[in-house]
Give the backbone structure.
Amino acid sequence: MELLFGNLLNVTWQQMVMWLIGAVLIYLAIKKDMEPTLLLPLGFGTILVNIPGADLITESGALTSLYNAGIANELFPLLLFIGIGAMIDFGPLLSNPKLMLFGAAAQFGIFFTLCAASIFFDINDAASIAVIGAADGPTSIVVAQTLGSKYLGPIMVAAYSYMALVPIIQPPIIKALTTKKERLIRMPYEPKNVSKLTRILFPIIITLIAALIAPSAASLIGFLMFGNLIRECGVLNSLSDTAQNVLANLVTIFLGITIALQMQADKFLQVDTLLILGLGLVAFIMDTAGGVLFAKLLNLFLKKKINPMIGAAGISAFPMSGRIVHKMGLKEDPQNFLLMQSIGVNVSGQIASVIAGGLILTFFAH
């Protein structure tokens, strides 16, 4: 009996706390339907890695092998970017290129958080923490890994957890920064015919421009735009469908359960981890605020007003943020359809976040 149940005595209260955290993540995935393909494996993995003596976290364990094969060499994030690229329709953005400005404005939180985090952490760690604000898990992983941050685990967990919590985080910030009158502004969608040639050339041109400006982002932007090229070329439809569904979901599941390797109690339950989670939240808030306030600033000079809520979609949480803005618009006015404009801003934020991550690497990678 002692042989069978003796391991129960090895359980610490810290590990039980992590079990509770894992259970909360599973609850959010199942009950609240918050990014279940990510939070469910992350939550279950958190419970797994906090079982005393579990073989999957040893040097040759299953999760350690997955981590070395997919995250340590950045393979999983890059493969996921192919899937994300295949999901993105740049049509609304190409119909209204000025929406790209909102994607750039919504990266303000990254650089604000960089300044704040540098007070508490070394500059490379601070830069890695700041990229949590990109609302882009793969970019956060690549930046933290490349800069050699010793806080890779908390950064990954914060980035993906906040991405899943965007429906909770963004609405109160948007409401606090806008008036009822502003939220009621209608923006009729005026679609323009975007040629197939334009759609094919766009990912190629963006890759060239972004990689020349920030060479360290070449792999990130390249894989993202390659996925989009698969979508738009018209001759790889089955491969595009596979990338959007099978590949993206499978890699996300592997990412979630592999990231859980960093959720071991002795690594996670530290003051620095709580500080990183707090700074990540600040980055998300400032990114959202930056996009909304930029739209309000433009309205001071525009005759045809912009609904400032769409500025919040400039973060990279695609397509969640765009949908949130659309739903908020419908709640204020059932006839106010902001989906196409908010998605256009959202995809511009995806590009801008990758470029921002590349600039961080350019400045701080040695």
Remarks:
- Residues 153 and 267 are 8 Å apart (CA to CA).
